[in-house]
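Long-time lurker, finally posting.

We've been working with Prefoldin subunit 5 (Geotrichum candidum) and I want a structural starting point before designing mutants. I don't trust myself to interpret raw outputs, so I'm hoping someone here can both generate the structure tokens and explain anything notable. Sequence follows.
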Amino acid sequence: MSQTTTGASSVDVHTLSGPQLAEVQQQLTQEIQHLTGSFQKLQQAQLKFNECKATVKVISSSDNENKELLVPLTSSLYVPGRVVDHDKVMVDVGTGYFVEKASKDAIEFFDKKTKTLQENLVDLEKIVAQKSSNLRVIEDALKQKIAAQQAEKKKPAASS
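Top reply, 14 upvotes:
Generated this for you. Predicted structure of Prefoldin subunit 5:
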């Protein structure tokens, strides 16, 4: 494992200097941190869609017709409301647009979103694993360079 892959090209890490290896190490660390943050955000979005799906299932029950509930206006402000039509919900489809959907269609919408996010999470997990592997190779090469430099410094001192 003496090579790291960046895009379509690969470089023998042992040909890089110490400062170059340190720079690549820093870049890979930043990329991994960014990708890990993205991974967490995707997981949170997936949880949100699953919660929405569960809520639609509860609301769509015919037992909930004309049932009173609290409607959130903000994260800390609610107003009383009433379920008028248990089979219709307003779904946030993104960028501030809402679409009225039948409960069954809303559940399918959230299922599709969750599935897409799961696929993205799997892809992202593979990328993070590859970047982490590359980082380990870089760190090993950097340790070898440092050890070699320290050995070189000791040689002239030993021969004096």
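Before you design anything, note these points.
The first strand starts at residue 3 and ends at 6.
The helical segments are 18-59, 103-159.
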